[in-house]
Protein backbone atom coordinates (compact mmCIF):
# COMPACT_ATOMS: atom_id res chain seq x y z
CA UNK A 1 0.00 0.00 0.00
CA UNK A 2 1.46 3.37 -1.00
CA UNK A 3 1.65 6.33 1.36
CA UNK A 4 -0.03 9.61 0.36
CA UNK A 5 3.12 11.36 1.59
CA UNK A 6 5.52 9.27 -0.50
CA UNK A 7 8.22 11.33 -2.19
CA UNK A 8 10.22 9.64 -4.98
CA UNK A 9 13.97 9.51 -4.49
CA UNK A 10 14.48 10.97 -7.97
CA UNK A 11 12.17 13.63 -9.37
CA UNK A 12 10.56 12.54 -12.64
CA UNK A 13 11.92 14.05 -15.82
CA UNK A 14 9.79 16.61 -17.67
CA UNK A 15 7.95 14.82 -20.51
CA UNK A 16 9.51 17.08 -23.16
CA UNK A 17 13.00 16.02 -22.04
CA UNK A 18 12.06 12.35 -22.30
CA UNK A 19 10.54 12.96 -25.73
CA UNK A 20 13.67 14.71 -27.02
CA UNK A 21 15.96 11.92 -25.81
CA UNK A 22 13.74 9.19 -27.23
CA UNK A 23 13.56 10.99 -30.57
CA UNK A 24 17.33 11.46 -30.81
CA UNK A 25 18.12 7.90 -29.75
CA UNK A 26 15.36 6.46 -31.94
CA UNK A 27 17.01 8.01 -34.99
CA UNK A 28 20.42 6.68 -33.93
CA UNK A 29 19.10 3.16 -33.30
CA UNK A 30 17.52 3.17 -36.77
CA UNK A 31 20.81 4.30 -38.33
CA UNK A 32 22.79 1.65 -36.43
CA UNK A 33 20.41 -1.21 -37.21
CA UNK A 34 20.20 -0.12 -40.84
CA UNK A 35 24.00 -0.01 -41.17
CA UNK A 36 24.12 -3.60 -39.88
CA UNK A 37 21.49 -4.73 -42.37
CA UNK A 38 19.00 -5.61 -39.64
CA UNK A 39 16.25 -3.31 -40.92
CA UNK A 40 15.41 -1.41 -44.08
CA UNK A 41 17.08 -3.65 -46.61
CA UNK A 42 20.26 -2.81 -48.59
CA UNK A 43 19.39 0.89 -48.87
CA UNK A 44 19.42 1.30 -45.10
CA UNK A 45 23.23 1.20 -45.08
CA UNK A 46 23.25 4.76 -46.40
CA UNK A 47 20.54 6.18 -44.13
CA UNK A 48 22.94 8.25 -42.05
CA UNK A 49 24.70 9.72 -45.06
CA UNK A 50 21.38 10.49 -46.72
CA UNK A 51 20.14 12.22 -43.56
CA UNK A 52 23.33 14.26 -43.29
CA UNK A 53 22.94 15.40 -46.90
CA UNK A 54 19.29 16.36 -46.39
CA UNK A 55 19.15 17.71 -42.85
CA UNK A 56 22.61 18.97 -41.79
CA UNK A 57 23.01 22.74 -41.64
CA UNK A 58 25.15 24.11 -44.47
CA UNK A 59 26.61 27.61 -44.54
CA UNK A 60 26.91 27.26 -48.30
CA UNK A 61 23.19 26.65 -48.61
CA UNK A 62 22.48 29.69 -46.43
CA UNK A 63 24.74 31.81 -48.66
CA UNK A 64 22.95 30.53 -51.75
CA UNK A 65 19.54 31.40 -50.28
CA UNK A 66 20.75 34.88 -49.33
CA UNK A 67 22.28 35.56 -52.75
CA UNK A 68 19.33 34.26 -54.75
CA UNK A 69 16.57 35.50 -52.46
CA UNK A 70 15.01 32.05 -52.53
CA UNK A 71 14.14 30.42 -49.21
CA UNK A 72 12.79 26.93 -49.92
CA UNK A 73 11.31 25.12 -46.94
CA UNK A 74 13.42 22.01 -47.50
CA UNK A 75 16.53 24.15 -46.94
CA UNK A 76 15.21 26.36 -44.13
CA UNK A 77 14.24 23.25 -42.17
CA UNK A 78 17.95 22.48 -41.77
CA UNK A 79 18.09 25.12 -38.99
CA UNK A 80 15.97 22.89 -36.77
CA UNK A 81 16.78 19.42 -38.08
CA UNK A 82 20.57 19.36 -37.80
CA UNK A 83 20.56 18.86 -33.99
CA UNK A 84 18.79 15.51 -34.46
CA UNK A 85 21.29 14.08 -36.95
CA UNK A 86 24.64 12.99 -35.51
CA UNK A 87 27.86 11.75 -36.97
CA UNK A 88 27.97 8.76 -34.63
CA UNK A 89 26.13 6.97 -31.86
CA UNK A 90 28.74 8.22 -29.36
CA UNK A 91 28.01 11.86 -30.19
CA UNK A 92 24.28 11.25 -29.82
CA UNK A 93 24.73 9.56 -26.43
CA UNK A 94 26.73 12.51 -25.07
CA UNK A 95 24.06 14.92 -26.33
CA UNK A 96 21.34 12.88 -24.64
CA UNK A 97 23.23 12.85 -21.33
CA UNK A 98 23.40 16.65 -21.38
CA UNK A 99 19.76 16.96 -22.44
CA UNK A 100 18.73 14.75 -19.51
CA UNK A 101 20.80 16.75 -17.01
CA UNK A 102 20.31 20.31 -18.24
CA UNK A 103 16.83 19.76 -19.62
CA UNK A 104 15.61 18.49 -16.26
CA UNK A 105 16.92 21.51 -14.36
CA UNK A 106 15.74 24.05 -16.92
CA UNK A 107 12.40 22.34 -17.56
CA UNK A 108 11.52 22.17 -13.87
CA UNK A 109 11.91 25.95 -13.51
CA UNK A 110 10.93 27.27 -16.95
CA UNK A 111 8.34 24.66 -17.87
CA UNK A 112 8.37 22.16 -20.71
CA UNK A 113 7.24 24.51 -23.49
CA UNK A 114 9.79 27.21 -22.63
CA UNK A 115 12.52 24.60 -22.34
CA UNK A 116 11.67 23.27 -25.83
CA UNK A 117 11.66 26.82 -27.27
CA UNK A 118 15.12 27.41 -25.80
CA UNK A 119 16.37 24.12 -27.24
CA UNK A 120 15.06 24.81 -30.76
CA UNK A 121 15.98 28.51 -30.98
CA UNK A 122 19.43 27.91 -29.49
CA UNK A 123 20.03 25.50 -32.35
CA UNK A 124 19.05 28.24 -34.78
CA UNK A 125 21.27 30.76 -32.99
CA UNK A 126 24.19 28.36 -33.02
CA UNK A 127 23.80 27.72 -36.75
CA UNK A 128 23.69 31.44 -37.51
CA UNK A 129 26.82 32.07 -35.42
CA UNK A 130 28.58 29.20 -37.20
CA UNK A 131 27.70 30.55 -40.65
CA UNK A 132 28.15 34.28 -40.03
CA UNK A 133 31.30 34.27 -37.88
CA UNK A 134 33.16 31.63 -39.85
CA UNK A 135 33.57 30.50 -43.43
CA UNK A 136 33.04 26.82 -42.62
CA UNK A 137 33.91 24.06 -45.05
CA UNK A 138 32.00 21.43 -43.13
CA UNK A 139 28.26 21.17 -42.43
CA UNK A 140 27.01 21.50 -38.86
CA UNK A 141 25.45 18.42 -37.28
CA UNK A 142 24.59 17.23 -33.80
CA UNK A 143 22.73 18.55 -30.80
CA UNK A 144 25.49 20.35 -28.93
CA UNK A 145 24.49 23.93 -29.91
CA UNK A 146 20.98 23.54 -28.43
CA UNK A 147 22.47 21.68 -25.46
CA UNK A 148 24.67 24.70 -24.86
CA UNK A 149 21.50 26.77 -25.08
CA UNK A 150 20.16 24.77 -22.12
CA UNK A 151 23.46 25.39 -20.35
CA UNK A 152 22.92 29.10 -21.08
CA UNK A 153 19.48 28.95 -19.46
CA UNK A 154 20.93 27.10 -16.45
CA UNK A 155 23.67 29.73 -16.23
CA UNK A 156 20.97 32.42 -16.23
CA UNK A 157 19.32 30.71 -13.26
CA UNK A 158 22.62 30.72 -11.38
CA UNK A 159 23.29 34.32 -12.41
CA UNK A 160 19.86 35.41 -11.26
CA UNK A 161 20.17 33.51 -7.97
CA UNK A 162 23.55 35.06 -7.20
CA UNK A 163 22.16 38.54 -7.88
CA UNK A 164 19.36 37.99 -5.36
CA UNK A 165 21.83 37.20 -2.58
CA UNK A 166 24.32 39.91 -3.56
CA UNK A 167 27.04 37.43 -4.56
CA UNK A 168 29.50 37.73 -7.44
CA UNK A 169 27.42 36.96 -10.54
CA UNK A 170 30.51 36.13 -12.59
CA UNK A 171 30.66 32.79 -10.75
CA UNK A 172 27.62 31.69 -12.75
CA UNK A 173 29.80 31.47 -15.87
CA UNK A 174 32.30 29.01 -14.39
CA UNK A 175 30.61 26.05 -16.09
CA UNK A 176 30.67 27.49 -19.60
CA UNK A 177 34.25 28.67 -19.10
CA UNK A 178 35.35 25.14 -18.13
CA UNK A 179 33.45 23.50 -21.01
CA UNK A 180 34.83 25.95 -23.57
CA UNK A 181 38.32 25.51 -22.16
CA UNK A 182 38.09 21.73 -22.46
CA UNK A 183 36.74 21.99 -25.99
CA UNK A 184 39.48 24.35 -27.13
CA UNK A 185 42.14 22.16 -25.50
CA UNK A 186 40.89 19.06 -27.29
CA UNK A 187 40.81 21.04 -30.53
CA UNK A 188 44.45 22.05 -30.10
CA UNK A 189 45.58 18.55 -29.17
CA UNK A 190 43.58 16.48 -31.63
CA UNK A 191 42.46 18.94 -34.28
CA UNK A 192 38.90 19.25 -35.50
CA UNK A 193 36.40 21.80 -36.73
CA UNK A 194 35.30 25.10 -35.25
CA UNK A 195 31.97 23.78 -33.98
CA UNK A 196 32.66 25.52 -30.67
CA UNK A 197 31.53 28.77 -32.34
CA UNK A 198 28.09 27.22 -32.86
CA UNK A 199 28.10 25.97 -29.26
CA UNK A 200 28.92 29.44 -27.97
CA UNK A 201 26.21 30.91 -30.19
CA UNK A 202 23.74 28.43 -28.74
CA UNK A 203 24.82 29.34 -25.20
CA UNK A 204 24.35 33.07 -25.86
CA UNK A 205 20.92 32.42 -27.39
CA UNK A 206 19.78 30.32 -24.44
CA UNK A 207 21.05 32.87 -21.93
CA UNK A 208 19.36 35.74 -23.76
CA UNK A 209 16.04 33.93 -24.17
CA UNK A 210 15.94 33.26 -20.44
CA UNK A 211 15.25 36.92 -19.73
CA UNK A 212 11.94 36.49 -21.58
CA UNK A 213 11.03 32.86 -20.93
CA UNK A 214 11.84 32.53 -17.24
CA UNK A 215 8.79 32.69 -14.95
CA UNK A 216 7.87 36.37 -14.60
CA UNK A 217 10.42 37.38 -17.22
CA UNK A 218 8.08 39.49 -19.33
CA UNK A 219 6.71 41.23 -16.24
CA UNK A 220 10.22 42.18 -15.06
CA UNK A 221 11.15 43.54 -18.49
CA UNK A 222 7.90 45.51 -18.72
CA UNK A 223 8.39 47.00 -15.25
CA UNK A 224 11.95 48.00 -16.08
CA UNK A 225 10.84 49.66 -19.33
CA UNK A 226 8.21 51.61 -17.43
CA UNK A 227 10.76 52.82 -14.90
CA UNK A 228 13.09 53.93 -17.68
Q: Topology of this structure?
A:
Blueprint: H1 15-35, H2 47-55, H3 59-68, H4 73-76, H5 78-81, H6 89-110, H7 112-133, H8 144-164, H9 174-190, H10 196-213, H11 217-227
**CATH class category label:** Mainly Alpha
Question: What general form does the structure show?
Answer: globular
Please, how many helices? 11
Mean pLDDT, to the nearest integer, reads: 89
How many structural domains in the coordinates? Answer: 1
Structural class: mainly alpha
* Helical amount: 55-70%
Distance between the termini: 58 Å
Number of strands: 0
Order of helices and strands: HHHHHHHHHHH
**From the coordinates shown, what is the CATH architecture?**
Up-down Bundle
Sheet having the most strands = none
Low-confidence runs: none
Based on CA atoms alone, the radius of gyration comes out at 20 Å
CATH topology: Rhomboid-like fold
The CATH superfamily title: Rhomboid-like
Strand content: under 5%
Descriptive report:
By secondary structure, the chain is an all-alpha fold. The protein has a single domain, classed as Up-down Bundle (Rhomboid-like fold). The protein is built from 11 helices and no strands. α1 runs antiparallel to α6 and α7 crosses α8. The longest helix is centred in the middle third of the chain and has 22 residues. It is globular, with a radius of gyration of 20 Å. The termini are far apart.
Amino acid sequence: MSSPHYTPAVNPLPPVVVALVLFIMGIEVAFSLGARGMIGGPGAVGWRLSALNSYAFSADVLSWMWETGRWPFEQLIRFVTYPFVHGSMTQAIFVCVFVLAMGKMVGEVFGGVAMLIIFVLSGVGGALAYALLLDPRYPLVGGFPPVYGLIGAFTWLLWRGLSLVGANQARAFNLIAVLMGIQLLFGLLFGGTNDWVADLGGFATGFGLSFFLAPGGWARIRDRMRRD
